[in-house]
Amino acid sequence: MDPILTLTGARKDWNGQTVLNDVNVTIHRGEFVGLIGPNGAGKTTLLRLMAKLLEPTGGAIFLDGRVLAGLRQREVSRQIATVPQSSPSPDFAFPALEVVLMGRYPHRGRWQKEQPEDYAIARQAMADTRTESLASRPITELSGGERQRVVVARALAQRPRLLLLDEPTANLDLCHQLQVLTLIRNLVRTEALAVVAAIHDLMLASRYCDRLLLLKAGSVIADDAPAAVLTPERLADAFGVVAHVEADVETGGLRITVIGPVD
Question: What pTM did the predictor assign?
Answer without folding.
Answer: 0.94
